[in-house]
Amino acid sequence: MSTFDFLLQGLAAAMLPMNLFYALVGVTLGTMVGVLPGIGPATTVALLLPVTYQLDATGSLIMFAGIYYGGMYGGSTTSILLNTPGESASIVTALEGNKMARAGRGGPALATAAIGSFVAGLIATLALAFIAPYIVKIALVFGPREYFALMVLAFITVSSAFGDSTLRGLTSLFIGLALSLVGIDQLTGQSRLSFGVPDLLDGIEVTTMAVAMFAIGETLFIAAQGATAPDKIEAVKGSVWMTGQDWARSWKAWLRGTLIGFPIGAMPAGGAEIGTFLSYATEKRLSKHPEEFGHGAIEGVAGPEAANNASAAGTLVPLLTLGLPTSATAAIMLAGFQQYGLQPGPLLFATNPQLVWGLIASLLIANLMLLVLNLPLVGLWVRLLTIPKPWLYAGILLFATLGTIGANPSVFELGMLLLFGLVAYGMRVFGYPIAPVIVGLILGPLAEQQLRRALSIAQGDIMTLFQSPIAAVLLILAALALIVPLILRSRGRGDVLTQMAASED
Amino acid sequence: MKHIMLASILAGALAMPAYAADYSIMAPAAPGGGWDQTARSLQTVLQQEKISKRVQVMNVPGAGGTIGIAQFASQQKGNPNAIMVGGYVMVGAILTNKSPVTLKDVTPIARLTGEYESIVVPASSDIKTVADLVAKLKANPGAVSWGGGSAGGTDHITVGLIAKAAGVDPTKINYIAFSGGGESLAAILGGQVTAGIASYGELESQIKAGTLRLLAVSSEQRLEGIDAPTLKESGLDVVIQNWRMVAAAPGITAEQKAAIVADFDKLDKSKGWQDTLKTKGWQDTYLTGPAFEEQLAKDIAATETILKDIGLVK
To answer: I want to staple A42 with a disulfide (CB 3.0 to 4.6 A). Which of A154, A308, A328, A353 is the partner?
Structure first.
């Protein structure tokens, strides 16, 4: 049988009414748990995995796929509506999404996230089915020095994309980098900056930090303004649905986000966050409305959300073709597969085609079910914003705290949540952007570890960083991204950049 | 609106640890890792075999389990229903992190499973045997880069032991620590490092597919169904296994301890557990009572010595 026949067969099985029902249950459960801040897809899948054990292989694979995609999507809903990212991959979504929600455009923001996730999930799942073996070969070429070059590129493109003032953006970035040093050094096992506090040994949890920075900081900021708070939240302004213009601005961002997210997700040390950062930076640079970024630009939601879902499918590439679980979620999925005697690895596509294609078909169905479930709910979700402000923000505080405690039951973690909430409040008052702190916290350790690994493998020879063709190309791109705008600006032609971006499409 | 609130409360209830359970098992690690999988397998089998009516699993991640053990020792004191999963990695982590709470502060119950280490090279490597590898290591220890798991963990300790057995200064080894099993395997497959080290289960499918060459395993005798010599046969006196155990809370009575041991005796003999071991590729290394305590003390002492030799513990 050819690849296509297997896929059709899998789809036929997944379309049975009972299996569709399982998909619906999975997606609903996944979204419900995924909505809690601090509870990411990994924890969601781990919590709900036992539910799937009761079913037959096909049924449980389908419910499982539903939980996975549902958990991924649940995080973005709270990011947009409440500014509390459920997991690190939906942090970028909160940047523009929440601004849109507060301007009465929560409906289109949720819709573009849902449809973008669907489009990206669809394309990436198909890519997984047909080109996974080729993608994984490229991904394996990436060693420590290539990853380091990729991180350098990410730092440079991303840091220029946040905020209006470079100095303030960099200050925030370095706060994040400094915080990222806390904890046990991965390469030597020695603790750094933990001051003898055992809870600090594992470093500062990114989701705790994100919830503190976004949700707690925001709540304090609003509370401090008291009755004089200027911006009244309007739940719905204009249509709840996406307008023609929204569609026109979203579709290219979806495709670009997919293109960025999928390969980065497929890389063993890629991670979903980096894709969302790069997508956000790309959209800001290519947008015809760069002035809207930071105030609710729809591309800034569409791109990163697509990238986030595409990289979720990308993670399955090394998992299915090599048996490499490259994220916590993937490791739990591996445990799930073993339950049905599925042993991921290089021989999987040859020895177990029915199950593999069943899984891929399940992912497609779950993806569709997610859209079916969430689009009608958009109208309901945005009603959340009509709750009177004191109730709404009290609710946000409650959920932020509950999520943090649920993910890691520790008093210290809670103290950290409140402390960084205060820090975020101070940063808001003095006009420092908060997103770069999170970027630094995520990218810092990756860049540091990969650099040290590369140098250790080469026994200290710094030239190794430039000797691989891929690393060299990435570093040249990074250098160009840094130098070109400087040259153009020094010639007083900063506006050329905007024109270039405008004439690209 | 009501529905949303209801849904959220339901979801919240799901996420919160429940307290009314026969056993509550703490996995001192994030979801997904070996300890978490052990805890969740225990949960399934204990319930399936009707040894315990309801079992809860709770994750307390961090620092090789030292955060979990500290919390367990202080919060569960005297609680006969509390169980914690642990293992060899915790022994090393307690030493490197200078954890004030050690395995002496809990009540070890039984060793459950073990996985042996395997030493591999990419299929394209010119290294064919352990002897080739040792020759390279002796010529220039720094030029042989080893890809494996976290610093101070079982993989790192094994490399230290190999160097020592080969007469090479263990502080000179070039060990590259990767955060997850997946990441280090990718580096080995991609030829980024000279040799790789991980538990056999993690590498099995690659070895069978012929993309990795298995040089040796770290068991006492050859393993059934695995076509590779032991390190001992290859002239390196190194035997090590990454074992996992369960411990009960401190301050429980002798009767309470005996009851827990009896439950785990039942578990080990059950078909459900034996099937689980098979699907997961875990070796049954069940050991309990004084024999286990003796083995534990021996492992702790040996680990302290080698971590000092590598230079991770002063």
So the answer is: A328
Question: DSSP state, A216?
Answer: I
Domains and CATH numbers, chain B: 2-113+242-310 (3.40.190.150), 115-217 (3.40.190.10)
> Does the structure's ipTM exceed the value 0.95?
no
Contact, A286 vs A504, CB < 8 A?
yes
Q: Is A453 within 8 Å of chain B by CB?
A: yes
CA distance A184 to A195: 12
Relative orientation angle of helices A41-52 and A17-34, to the nearest 10 degrees = 140
What is the C-alpha to C-alpha distance for residues B149 and A186, in angstroms, rounded to an integer? 10
Cβ within 8 Å, pair B61-A139 = no
pLDDT at position A234 over 50: yes
Residue B83 distance to chain A (closest CA, Å)? 17
The single-letter DSSP state of residue A215 is I
Terminal C-alpha separation, chain B: 59
Phi-psi group of A19: left, alpha or beta (phi > 0 → left; psi -120 to 50 → alpha; rest → beta): alpha
Residues 6+ apart with CB under 8 A from A432: A168, A171, A172
Q: Which amino acid is at A312?
A: A
Do B55 and B92 touch, CB atoms closer than 8 A? Answer: no
pLDDT of A371 over the 80 cut = yes
Q: Residue A341: what pLDDT?
A: 64
Rounded distance, CA A157 to CA A162, Å? Answer: 10
CB pairs below 8 Å between A and B: how many?
189
Binding-face residues of A in 22-61 toward B, CB within 8 A: 32-33, 35-36, 39, 42-43, 45-50, 53
- How far away is chain A from the Cα of B255, in angstroms, using its nearest Cα? 30
Beta pairing partners, B121: B213
**Domain residues of chain A, as ranges?**
3-502
A389-403, B103-117, B127-141, B242-256: range with lowest mean pLDDT: A389-403
Q: How far apart are CA A44 and CA B15, in angstroms?
A: 8
Please report, rounded to a whole number, the percentage of residues in chain B having pLDDT higher than 70.
91
Distance CA B298, CA B292 (A): 10
